[in-house]
From TrEMBL:
InterPro entries named among the record's database cross-references: DUF2142_membrane (IPR018674)
Keywords from the UniProt entry: Membrane, Transmembrane, Transmembrane helix
Signal peptide start-end: none
Region (Disordered): 476-497
Source species of the chain: Nocardioides marmotae
A Pfam family: DUF2142
Name of this protein: DUF2142 domain-containing protein
Length: 497
């Protein structure tokens, strides 16, 4: 089982690299959402700036950091083309030894992620350094997603489990995983935590399995989730609360009652405290500005709910740039099928956990919007809450509905390969065609952009490799026990009673 799971995870990582490569090349340097601000932070941290506090920008957007001049100069064309930036974000002021003091809205963020990608880019300059930061981010995310794929394969999932797993990895997850920003790592870490939770709920289907790999996945993913971004500790607590409902009291006690569970609790508690300590020291995400927005926040919430749903699927390169409607149609259709079949086949405990996740996905951003609306308006983005919201789809993997024999083989194509290929092609090609017209880097040597056919090939190859991973993971092993017979009149669930 472990060897097969490793092969499946390898295919999945290779496919993820192809999908990430399409995004890395399709988006001009620094055009990812706030990417120039994250690049400044990474370059500064790699040169020793780990301070939680910095001088505020006189222009009122971000705090000032000392960054190599070549990074600032290479980011300037894209930075100045954005509607929300100031001269202090795009030009800064000169400092000694080829450095420049420039404002970044990411200056207060936890430096751990930035230390990794910034150190990798230290030997490089300008846009080359930015591409190295993207590659480093993509590698971190692919490793986390690969670990989630390994857990998904190791638990002995059916093709249905892979449909739910790949269905939760929306275009915004793959796009974010290829940009030089911490959002992708946060989303990939959450996927690893959810995969471990679902695997614990299905424990006992493959005989002789231990909880240790699944608890380890939750611990590793949770430690990253709790430290990489400000709301990480809250997301982790909410995911674990949903996990307790999903598993039930008896199963939760069984998981926490052994040595591995106790160690995991201690590690995650320390990670949450570390994340909270940095937030308290840096006052991360404190609006700290004058009142700019008029109108009632309550009146803006219904539109925000719809916007957050669509942004959790796709919004790129910037949060207010809507993808073609076909992309949303495909993803929402896949989600609807998963929810319909999963909740129908699952037991009440699964529905309760899904309801908690949905409630948290609405209440937390609503509360944040009500508290900051006067300064920021509707500043929340769907991808912010998606670490929790993806659990709606991933939890359905535990229901294991049994489709008719003639339909089951089609899941390999319709459930895994086709959505990944379709939404990938729509998203990547739409972005690259738009940027060829609008980007200030279009036609320059700073943006390495392959032909559309090459980008399409990356996407199709990645989708096929994802399908190959699902086939490897679900192919019956020689000599393995047959699947238990399930009466077609019973509602099916592998959750413990």
């Amino acid at each position: 089982m472990r060897a097969r799971a490793l092969r499946a995870a390898t295919w999945f990582v290779l496919g993820t690299w192809c999908l990430q490569a399409a995004w890395i090349f399709a988006v001009p340097p620094y055009r990812g959402l706030d990417e120039h601000e994250h690049a400044y932070k990474a370059a500064a941290v790699a040169r020793g700036d780990w301070s939680p506090r910095h001088p505020s920008s006189p222009d009122g957007w971000g705090d000032r950091m000392t960054v190599p001049a070549d990074v600032v100069d290479s980011a300037r064309p894209v930075c100045e083309s954005l509607p929300y930036t100031t001269p202090d974000n795009c030009r800064g002021s000169s400092a000694d030894d080829g450095l420049r003091t420039v404002a970044s809205s990411a200056a207060r963020y936890n430096p751990l992620f930035y230390a990794v990608i910034g150190s990798a880019a230290l030997p490089f300059e300008g846009t080359t350094a930015l591409y190295v930061m993207r590659l480093s981010t993509a590698l971190l995310c692919s490793l986390l997603l690969g670990a989630a794929a390994y857990v998904t394969a190791r638990r002995g999932s059916s093709m249905w489990g892979w449909v739910c797993f790949s269905g939760a990895l929306t275009p915004i997850v793959l796009y974010s995983s290829a940009m030089a920003a911490p959002n992708g790592v946060e989303l990939a870490a959450a996927a690893l935590v959810w995969s471990g939770v679902v695997a614990l709920g299905r424990h006992g289907v493959p005989r002789g399995h231990s909880d240790l790999p699944y608890v380890t996945a939750i611990t590793a993913g949770g430690a990253v989730l709790a430290t990489v971004r400000t709301l990480g500790p809250l997301w982790l607590v909410l995911i674990l609360a949903a996990a307790a409902l999903f598993l039930g009291r008896q199963r939760t006690r069984q998981v926490l009652g052994n040595r591995a569970g106790g160690a995991a609790t201690s590690v995650l508690a320390v990670a949450c405290l570390a994340g909270l300590a940095w937030t308290a020291a840096a006052r991360t995400n404190d609006p700290g500005g004058p009142l700019r927005v008029t109108g009632e926040a309550w009146a803006a919430l219904p539109g925000g709910w719809a916007m957050w749903l669509f942004q959790s699927i796709a919004a790129f390169p910037a949060r207010d740039e809507i993808a073609p409607l076909g992309l949303y149609a495909v993803t929402l259709t896949v989600w609807a099928v998963i929810l319909l079949l999963g909740l129908r086949a699952g037991r009440r405990r699964l529905g309760t956990a899904v309801a908690l996740v949905v409630a948290c996905s609405l209440l937390v951003p609503s509360a944040a919007t009500l508290m900051t609306h006067a300064e920021l308006g509707i500043a929340w983005q769907g991808r912010y809450g998606y670490p929790v919201a993806m659990g709606v789809i991933m939890l359905c993997a535990a229901a294991e509905p049994r489709p008719p024999g003639a339909v089951a083989p089609a899941l390999k194509i319709l459930g895994v390969v086709l959505p990944a290929a379709t939404v990938g092609l729509i998203g990547v090609l739409d972005v690259v065609r738009g940027e060829r017209v609008d980007s200030p880097l279009a036609g320059t040597s700073a943006w390495i952009v392959p032909p559309d056919a090459s980008l399409a090939l990356f996407v199709l190859a990645g989708a096929v490799m994802w399908g190959r991973a699902a086939i490897v993971a679900t192919r019956p092993q020689r000599g393995s026990d047959p699947a238990p017979h399930v009466s077609p009149t019973r509602r099916v669930s592998t959750l413990p009673e």
